[in-house]
Design a protein that fits this description.
Structural class: alpha+beta
Order of helices and strands: EEEHEEE
Helix content: 10-25%
Number of strands: 6
Oligomer: single chain
Radius of gyration: 14 Å
Length: 98
């Protein structure tokens, strides 16, 4: 993966869906790499974050590599807007702070 200006990868998009996680990475040259987790059904937080780690590893990333992040998550946002209050198909997201 070619690094963008300053050694940083440009943009990472993550879609946490009801059956799997999908991610796309666009580097400084606007080349796109994609990754998909194994399928899951109503994952708890351990399974969900294991799948997230796997997708990030598939893209060859480690902490702090991405310059920007877009995140799509299912569920109902808390009234204060800082966590997922309810996620019918992804219970591992409930209570997660964003």
């Amino acid at each position: 993966m070619e690094l963008a200006e300053g050694g940083q990868l440009a943009w990472l998009g993550i879609d946490i869906g009801g059956t799997r996680i999908k991610a796309a990475l666009m580097d400084g040259s606007r080349q796109v790499s994609c990754a998909t987790s194994q399928s899951y059904r109503r994952p708890d937080s351990t399974r969900l974050f294991g799948c997230l780690d796997d997708v990030i590893s598939q893209l060859g990333l480690s902490g702090g590599d991405a310059k920007g992040l877009g995140l799509c998550v299912p569920g109902v946002r808390s009234q204060c807007g800082t966590y997922i209050e309810y996620a019918a198909n992804v219970p591992g997201l409930m209570g997660v702070q964003f």
